[in-house]
Specification:
Length: 176
């Protein structure tokens, strides 16, 4: 079971993300995913909510955003963003693996800069496979990993297959 990092480390990391997001807006990365209005999105390992506002604009009011993180401060930060921006379609989930979402209910999972930290990556992939719709997309990026580790890490159990390599993300489809 994963444990949340200390509060100081999380706050320090969050400040770094704000700096990063200024120079590389999250919406530029999300363009590669193909998110459409009405989609249900799971931001797995959402951290301080860097993607929430950009995703909310893409899915519109008819879409749904689930922001999952193990760290209670991450959940608080996402709830604060959603409240300030009046995003009524954001639901937070504090968990280290299980989402609590129904089977085949999510169009896109964002798994960004989280995979390298997971103590049970196969358990997480099984959960993501379960909640993704049959044509669902697992959008993946982890700057701590090399391409061969990314592809083998996500495809070795037969749950996902590489669909496309973008400039900043990899798109995997749910293997049926």
């Amino acid at each position: 079971m994963d444990k949340p990092e200390p509060n100081f480390h999380f706050k320090f990391m969050s400040c770094g993300y704000k700096f990063r997001d200024f120079f590389l807006p999250r919406r530029n990365i999300l363009k590669e995913v193909g998110i459409k209005p009405g989609f249900h999105i799971l931001d797995y390992g959402c951290g301080p909510g860097s993607y929430i506002t950009a995703v909310a604009k893409l899915v519109g009011r008819s879409g749904e955003i689930y922001a999952l993180d193990i760290h209670p401060l991450a959940i608080q930060m996402v709830q604060s963003i959603a409240s300030k921006k009046q995003l009524m379609n954001v639901e937070t989930i504090c968990s280290d693996c299980k989402t609590g979402l129904p089977d085949n209910s999510v169009d896109v999972v964002l798994l960004y800069d989280t995979f390298h930290t997971l103590s049970d990556p196969n358990g997480v992939l099984e959960e993501l496979h379960r909640v993704l719709k049959p044509n669902g997309i697992l959008s993946f990026s982890d700057h701590h990993m090399k391409e061969n580790g990314i592809i083998s890490g996500l495809t070795n159990k037969g749950l996902f297959r590489l669909s496309r390599k973008g400039k900043r993300t990899y798109s995997f489809l749910k293997a049926v």
